[in-house]
Amino acid sequence: MSTSVNKVILIGNVGKDPVVRQFPNGGESVSFSVATSEKWNDKKTGELKSHTEWHDIEVPDFIPSMIEFVKSYVKKGHLVYVEGRIKTRKWTDPNGVEKVARKISLGAGCYVQILKDRNSSENTPDDIVDDSQKVDDSQKMGAKDYMW
Q1: Please, what are the domains in the chain?
Q2: pTM for the complete prediction?
Q3: pLDDT in tens, 95-129
């Protein structure tokens, strides 16, 4: 029996406030970007180098409670912890060039936690909301993290 795992864990800063997309059927999705950075010393020169990688995060329309959490709490500059899955989309542009885009999708079993908000040096509360608590969309979410 073979098994596989598609799981991504990121800790980084939100690049801009989440963007909400509305669909004709009344549904919506939300997306935001997270920057992760690494630093190292160049072996030859000893110079400090760094690289920032940007990750596109999306919450699909079938998880309205997570969409509401992201819309309400995730803001530009926040340090966040994200667990999601890699989704790859391939297409051909009008010039015939093959394109590939990868996003981190936050579906069932995924997690978002705000580690620090942009205006605080303190960690945010550890009020975890998970599906075992059977929280529905009508309940007010006071948590700074959310697991679906």
Answers
A1: 8-147 (2.40.50.140)
A2: 0.75
A3: 999 999 999 999 888 889 999 876 665 544 443 33
